[in-house]
């Protein structure tokens, strides 16, 4: 089978020097459904599924030669209720880096996680979901693509 190109994101992995502190922030403050994970030769880490994507927070020891740093990658996550999200942050004494603002087909804001990473949150407009629906109808659905390649 010929290589047809990269299809989808399979995972987003954060590497941290203080994995428990970072996982606590994502689980308790941002409400990611993180669970303890450990497989193969890896140290304990935390992971969950966000849509079709695996999200995990790993200790630096799981990636030999990795040097966790700030600002190399910017993450953005979808939320459905910006006002509710801002209220939730306030209840946890977390201040957004800036007030929600309109940018194209979305409202955006961001926070800084305990490792110093800027994490953006978007509330997408209905037009964006219609765009995604059209892409799926055109065959950009991960399960449909896998089935067609698996033969």
Structure characterization notes:
- A hairpin with a 7-residue loop joins strand 2 and strand 3.
- With 151 residues, this protein is of the alpha/beta class.
- It is flat, with a radius of gyration of 17 Å.
- It has 4 helices and 8 strands.
- The protein folds into 2 domains: 8-66, 2,3-Dihydroxybiphenyl 1,2-Dioxygenase, domain 1 (Roll), CATH 3.10.180.10; 74-151, 2,3-Dihydroxybiphenyl 1,2-Dioxygenase, domain 1, CATH 3.10.180.
- The mean pLDDT is 88.
- The termini are close together.
- The strands form 2 sheets. The protein has a 4-stranded mixed β-sheet.
The CATH class assignment of the largest domain is Alpha Beta
Structural class: alpha/beta
Number of individual domains: 2
Distance between the termini: 11 Å
Q: Report the principal-axis shape.
A: flat
Major sheet attributes: 4 strands, mixed
Name the CATH superfamily assignment of the largest domain.
2,3-Dihydroxybiphenyl 1,2-Dioxygenase, domain 1
Mean pLDDT: 88
H-E string: EHEEEEHEEEHH
Helix content, binned percent: 25-40%
CATH architecture of the largest domain: Roll
Topology, number of strands: 8
Note the beta-strand portion.
25-35%
Weakly predicted, low-confidence segments: none
Oligomer: single chain
Tell me the number of helical segments per DSSP (H or I, 4 or more residues long).
4
Question: CATH topology of the largest domain, what is it called?
Answer: 2,3-Dihydroxybiphenyl 1,2-Dioxygenase, domain 1
Strand order of the largest sheet: 1-4-3-2
Using only C-alpha atoms, the radius of gyration works out to 17 Å
């Amino acid at each position: 089978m010929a290589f047809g190109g990269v299809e989808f994101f399979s995972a987003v992995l954060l590497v941290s020097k203080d994995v428990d502190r970072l996982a606590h922030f994502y689980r308790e403050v941002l409400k990611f459904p993180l669970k303890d994970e450990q497989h193969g030769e890896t140290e304990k880490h935390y992971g969950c599924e966000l849509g079709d994507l695996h999200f995990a927070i790993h200790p630096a020891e799981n990636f030999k030669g990795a040097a966790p740093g700030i600002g190399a990658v910017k993450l953005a996550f979808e939320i459905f209720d910006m006002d509710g999200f801002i209220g939730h942050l306030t209840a946890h004494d977390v201040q957004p880096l800036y007030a929600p603002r309109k940018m194209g087909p979305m409202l955006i804001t961001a926070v800084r996680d305990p490792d110093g990473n800027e994490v953006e949150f978007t509330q997408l407009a209905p037009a964006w979901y219609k765009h995604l629906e059209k892409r799926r109808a055109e065959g950009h659905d991960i399960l449909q693509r896998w089935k067609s390649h698996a033969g």
